[in-house]
């Protein structure tokens, strides 16, 4: 009778003879798997071989002819290797389960000495299994097309389970490789029972002494308990609502179990430990165990098994794409090792090396992308705009205040960009009130001097109107004997509420060139808007715009100069990583005369004292912001919310004043009207959610009260604080956390310590991560899964290596870099991110 191996060889040989048409078996090669798998298991063939055959034949139908040929060649080699091994005598150092049972002492216990010996055997067996897996690994030259195969090619993954995994973002085998654990449980420490201590997380090898399941709480809950011993002591294991464990565990079974040691009635216990029979491959115990993100209807054990069978087979066959010189220079492990060790690490050192490699890859690919973008715009040609010194000094003299040193420095950078012959691509970050608009106005003046057009795009209508008024003041009207650069008729405001006849007139003026500057919102990038000669695009609060929106403004001109501005201070590590394609200008100096805002963290019990401060400020003719983290109570029942608090404050606390309400569910026109009414003094108090973060200039506002301040990041709180103190009067920022928790208030205390937005931004990055800084900046790059954007050392290493690579092969023309070019395309998506 033919063995399963011989039968499989016959089918594969027939498939080769047929030219890999997948018809050696009616319906495809995968149709032989159910019977073949049962037969192979009954004869106890190598489990890794069985899994390999199942995966390869399930994926076979998705491969092209050359890939099918490579697949069958691999299978032939594996089958031949197994046959040759089976002909050689072997001596197992790892006894099968039956032998272990026969060798037990009469009391069915293991001594501490034998437990240690058994642990050694486990390690030996794990290494032997690892070697066998290595022997079965396909060659590096094999195509990776199989990684695109759907998850249903895996044993036990049908349409239902595939849909469950889809909820985790897992759609093909390649997704599994890069679905990293969210944390790890270190169960690699092995001890006899008489040496374990309360609170330890460890692994024990022992024998089941007794086992029982009993109902509690009237049958609503079932508790399964096992008492186990290793000869040195006893410990009780408890599982809740897992009655099937009693069916799988029996008196006398030797098991490996891992978990946290607890104490109950003076005795050692483990609640819900992970466990496995001693002769099983240990995925859940006696090692550093990966813990993955989950969704409903799948457990850690199920997902871990899926990950193991996928990772151990496919990780070794991924193609290394990092240049060897780069890997050696930084001291990184190869990609296959990194993927294997990040999922199932052999040691904490191997895990650290794997994480460093994968984190480096993400930063390196990001750096290559931004350097590619920088190269693209630096090589482009643009019109040259000179600004003679005498002329520029005249324009500066029109400004009703002296420029700060920071403003003068940034102005020179912008002048050089406009005169360089290459498109300016500059990010201007300056704290609230640092005078960014003045720099934009002078840049617009330089372009307008030569007859070209400029556009400024703002995220909201109310902010666009504010820019319109400021730029009218700065750019129009004679100043002594110095004529204005533009007339009021040459500056237009285009927003959603602009009447249609006026919109048509503005479009005509932009098309024929009579309008030299337009300020607006998204209305600027609508199709009907065409420019005669757009040469400078300014984007305010750039993180509020998506890449497509900024790109749509750029394409309105031919290689226009671009200045993007933000009041959100960006930490250096983040600027190096995310904005490496941009030239960066920083304005960290406030204009003279601006008073620092007095900031206090106040306990909830002191709220009435703050209400008194608000009343006195309003009576002095000033206005107040009050910010809440949520719109309505339904959002978070335990938190204060804007709608309910607006009603309470108006009726009970400030009935003599008029309070406005602003939140994100209001229509844009409603929000704009509320902000206008507040700016015009109709409301004395504005109750709002975080939508006011980027808002209008209200010089009369002197108090910013933030309720639930612990729910906001420091950078966001700093933005709130910047909404007040914009006049000459003293201003206050009051932060009230929800609780008196010391750690929470310690974080908020940073707001009391400094008014420097960059210091706060660094702290925010450390505490909350990069999400609040990124906005919608990039369109294509993958979400960072492993890199920590606070790791400035790793970022600088990756940046250095990316620059070295670009000096050698900026266009990826070297055939040795083809794999890296492919990975770049995957990482950045179908297209390049916009260079702003």
Give a concise summary.
This protein is α/β, with parallel strands linked by helices.
Share of helix, binned? 40-55%
Shape: globular
Described by strand count, sense and barrel closure, the largest sheet is:
7 strands, parallel
CATH domain fold name of the largest domain: Rossmann fold
Mean pLDDT: 82
* Derived structural class: alpha/beta
- Overall tally of structural domains: 6
Strand element count? 21
Give the strand line-up of the largest sheet. Answer: 11-12-10-13-14-9-15
Any key phrases for this structure?
single chain; 836 residues; alpha/beta; OB fold (Dihydrolipoamide Acetyltransferase, E2P); DNA polymerase, domain 1; 6 domains; 6-stranded parallel sheet; 15% strand; disordered C terminus
Structure description:
There is one protein chain. With 836 residues, the chain is an alpha/beta fold. The protein has six domains: 1-86; 106-135 and 183-291, Nucleic acid-binding proteins (OB fold (Dihydrolipoamide Acetyltransferase, E2P)); 137-182 and 293-317, DNA polymerase, domain 1, CATH 1.10.150; 324-379 and 786-828, no CATH class; 389-420 and 434-566, P-loop containing nucleotide triphosphate hydrolases (Rossmann fold, 3-Layer(aba) Sandwich); 598-754, P-loop containing nucleotide triphosphate hydrolases (Rossmann fold), CATH 3.40.50.300. It has 29 helices and 21 strands. Helix 19 links the parallel strand 13 and strand 14. Helix 12 (335-343) crosses helix 13 (348-379) and helix 20 (572-578) packs parallel to helix 28. The longest helix is centred in the middle third of the chain and has 32 residues, at 348-379. Residues 88-113, 128-143, 775-782 and 830-836 have low confidence and may be disordered.
């Amino acid at each position: 009778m033919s063995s399963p191996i011989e039968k499989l060889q016959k089918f594969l040989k027939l498939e080769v003879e047929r030219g890999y048409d997948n018809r050696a078996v009616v319906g495809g090669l995968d149709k032989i798997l159910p019977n073949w798998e049962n037969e192979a298991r009954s004869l106890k063939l190598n489990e890794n071989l069985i899994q390999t055959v199942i995966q390869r034949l399930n994926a076979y139908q998705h491969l092209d002819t050359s890939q099918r040929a490579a697949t069958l060649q691999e299978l032939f080699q594996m089958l031949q290797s197994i046959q040759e091994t089976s002909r050689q005598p072997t001596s197992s150092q790892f006894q099968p389960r039956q032998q272990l049972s026969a060798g037990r002492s009469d009391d069915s216990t293991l001594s501490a000495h034998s437990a240690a010996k058994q642990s050694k055997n486990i390690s030996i067996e794990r290494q032997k299994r690892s070697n066998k897996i290595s022997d079965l690994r396909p060659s590096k030259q094999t195509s990776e097309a199989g990684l695109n195969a759907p998850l249903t090619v895996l044993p036990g993954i049908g349409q239902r389970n595939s849909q469950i995994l889809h909820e985790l973002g897992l759609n093909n085998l390649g997704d599994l490789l890069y679905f990293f654990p969210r944390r790890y449980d270190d169960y690699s420490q092995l001890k006899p029972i008489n040496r374990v201590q309360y609170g330890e997380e460890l692994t024990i090898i022992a024998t089941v002494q007794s086992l029982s399941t009993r109902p509690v709480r009237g049958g609503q809950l079932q508790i399964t308990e096992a008492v186990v011993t290793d000869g040195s002591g006893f410990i009780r294991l408890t599982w809740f609502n897992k009655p099937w464990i009693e069916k799988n565990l029996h008196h006398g079974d030797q098991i490996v179990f891992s978990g946290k040691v607890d104490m109950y009635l003076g005795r050692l216990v483990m609640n819900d430990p992970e466990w496995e029979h001693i002769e099983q491959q240990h995925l859940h115990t006696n090692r550093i165990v990966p813990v993955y993100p989950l969704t409903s209807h799948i457990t850690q054990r199920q997902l871990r098994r899926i990950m193991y069978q996928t990772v151990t087979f496919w990780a070794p066959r991924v193609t290394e794409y990092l240049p060897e010189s780069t890997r050696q220079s930084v001291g990184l492990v190869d990609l296959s090792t990194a993927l294997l060790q990040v999922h199932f690490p052999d040691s904490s050192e191997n895990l650290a090396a794997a994480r460093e490699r994968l984190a480096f890859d993400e930063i390196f690919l990001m750096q290559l992308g931004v350097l590619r973008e920088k190269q693209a715009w630096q090589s482009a040609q643009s019109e040259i705009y000179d600004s003679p010194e005498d002329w520029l000094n005249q324009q500066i003299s029109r400004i009703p205040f002296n420029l700060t040193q920071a403003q003068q420095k940034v102005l020179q950078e912008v002048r050089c960009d406009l005169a360089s012959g290459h498109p300016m691509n500059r990010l201007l970050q300056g704290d609230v009130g640092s005078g960014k608009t003045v720099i934009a106005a002078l840049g617009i003046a330089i372009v307008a001097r030569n007859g070209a057009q400029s556009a400024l795009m703002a995220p909201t209508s109310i902010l666009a109107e504010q820019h319109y008024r400021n730029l009218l003041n700065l750019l129009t009207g004679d100043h002594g004997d110095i004529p204005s650069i533009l007339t009021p008729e040459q500056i237009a405001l285009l927003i959603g509420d602009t009447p249609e006849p006026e919109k048509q007139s503005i479009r005509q003026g932009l098309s024929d060139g009579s309008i030299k500057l337009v300020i607006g919102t998204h209305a600027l990038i609508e199709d009907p808007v065409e420019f005669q000669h757009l040469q400078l695009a300014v984007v305010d609060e750039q993180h509020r715009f998506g890449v497509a929106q900024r790109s749509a403004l750029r394409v309105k001109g031919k290689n226009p100069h671009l200045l993007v501005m933000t009041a959100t201070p960006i930490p250096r590590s983040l600027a190096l990583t995310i904005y490496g394609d941009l030239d960066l200008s920083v304005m960290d100096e406030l204009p003279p005369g601006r008073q620092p805002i007095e900031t206090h963290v106040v306990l909830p019990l002191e709220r009435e004292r703050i209400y008194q401060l608000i009343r006195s400020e309003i009576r002095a003719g000033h206005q107040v912001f009050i910010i809440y983290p949520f719109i309505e109570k339904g959002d978070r029942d335990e938190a204060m919310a804007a709608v309910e608090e607006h009603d309470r404050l108006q009726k009970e606390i400030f009935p003599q004043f008029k309070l406005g309400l602003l939140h994100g569910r209001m229509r844009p026109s409603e929000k704009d009207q509320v902000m206008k009414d507040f700016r015009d003094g109709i409301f004395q108090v504005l109750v709002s959610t975080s939508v006011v973060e980027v808002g209008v200039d209200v010089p009369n506002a002197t108090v910013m009260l933030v309720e639930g301040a612990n729910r906001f990041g420091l950078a966001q709180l700093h933005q709130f604080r910047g909404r007040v103190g914009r006049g000459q009067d003293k201003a206050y920022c009051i932060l009230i956390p929800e609780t008196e928790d010391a750690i929470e208030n310690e974080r908020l205390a940073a707001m009391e310590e400094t008014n420097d937005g960059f210091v706060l931004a660094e702290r925010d990055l450390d505490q909350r991560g990069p999400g609040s800084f990124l906005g919608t900046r990039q369109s294509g790059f993958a979400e960072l899964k492993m890199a920590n954007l606070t790791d400035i050392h790793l970022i600088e290493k990756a940046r250095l290596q990316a620059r070295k690579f670009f000096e050698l092969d900026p266009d990826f023309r070297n055939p040795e870099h083809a794999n890296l070019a492919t990975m770049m395309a995957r990482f950045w998506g179908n297209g390049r991110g916009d260079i702003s």
